[in-house]
Amino acid sequence: MIILKILLRNSLRHPLRSTLTVLAVAVAILSFGLLRTVIDAWYAGVQASSAARLVTRNSISLTMPLPLAYAPRIRQVEGVSRVSWGNWFGGIYQDEKNFFPSFAVEPYGYLDLYPEMVLADAELAAFRRERTACVVGRKTATRFGWKVGQTITLRGTIYPGDWPMTIRGIFRGRDKTADESPLMFHWDYLNEGIKRIWPGAADSVGWYLIGVKDPNRAAEVSAAVDGMFKNSLAETRTETEKAFNLGFISMTEAIITIIRLVSLAVIAIIMVVAANTMAMTARERMGEYATFKALGFDGFRIGILVWGESLTLTAAGGALGMALTFPAARYFESQLGQFFPVFLVSSTTLVLDLAAIVLVGFAASVVPTWRAARVNVVEGFRHLG
């Protein structure tokens, strides 16, 4: 208890220095936590992937279509429970700033394959009945103030022209990791428009979404699907949804690496700042440490005083930084929701924050602790007066 009182008093002996150190640590932990949350958001689609879903695309590139005629043949593959398909639409609402994911999908099987998208039965039935109907995630609907029954018009970027559609349902995520930003409308509606714009590109899909009966047989089903279309004009590549999403992540791997390096650099910089604070503190108190030794304190107890003060300062700053991470993450989500549909501070990030706090507190005090523990009584008394 006496040691604890000494630690608290020592931490507050220089209020300005202690306050600046605590704030510096808080900013560093806040920055580290946000950067780690950005990385988690980048991989959110991968984490939310289901082992029971496969994606079949053109083996050349996702931008190359596949014939609609492949659907009945894929259904015949053993182990396949359901087949659906979709196209990336890429429309915008009113102006270029209002971007969000939009897809043209087969309205029956596609939504059934995504049970994490929770939609009321009446809304789902209304969506399936109406050719120009659409459903949209709660986050996007809130962003634009959309309501069920409202007619909106998307302007096509890939498929030119105006595309009016009526909102017949607003879905929510089953859990916090579900993406609540996409808009989905009937693939037939898009296909009819393509027939008018580019007749030769009609009756083609961007990808097939396949449900498998047994996730353990995903590799076997994938091989069977790709083998069926081998040496055809449009060969396929079938992979798990997780592998499909990782393919997109790999295109930006350099950015992820840079963010990781920056997050580590932040911790390294604050470690230097905290070490400088503890070095000044230890240098000023050499006479006090010599007095402790003269009174019978051994080097271990004196070292505990230095290490404890360092950890007290970093823990205070770290706690403040962790507390600020949550409102900061909510603000980032509100500003960058179209780029990061899921932006949550994970438990893993909090654990890494705690590890960083302990690491900084310990590393910053190594040299000052060693010097204080080994102080010579006679040399130390020279610092008095």
- Backbone shape: elongated
Summed up, the helix count is: 16
Name the poorly predicted regions. Answer: none
Helix content: 40-55%
The largest sheet, given as strand count, sense and whether it forms a barrel, is:
11 strands, mixed
Strand content: 15-25%
Number of strands: 13
Question: Which class of secondary structure composition applies to the elements?
Answer: alpha+beta
Estimate nothing, just give the exact number of structural domains.
Answer: 2
N-to-C span: 29 Å
Order of helices and strands: HHHEEHEEEHEHEHEEEHEEHEHHHHHHH
Radius of gyration: 30 Å
Mean pLDDT: 83
Written description of the protein model:
By secondary structure, the chain is of the alpha+beta class. It has two domains: 2-44 and 252-381, no CATH class; 60-234, no CATH class. The chain is 54% helix and 17% strand. The chain is built from 16 helices and 13 strands. Strands 1, 3, 4, 5, 6, 7, 8, 9, 10, 12 and 13 form an eleven-stranded mixed β-sheet that branches. The protein has a two-stranded antiparallel ribbon with strand order 2-11. Helix 2 (15-42) runs antiparallel to helix 11 (253-284), helix 11 runs antiparallel to helix 13 (299-336) and helix 13 packs antiparallel against helix 14 (347-363). The longest helix is centred in the C-terminal third of the chain and has 38 residues, at 299-336.
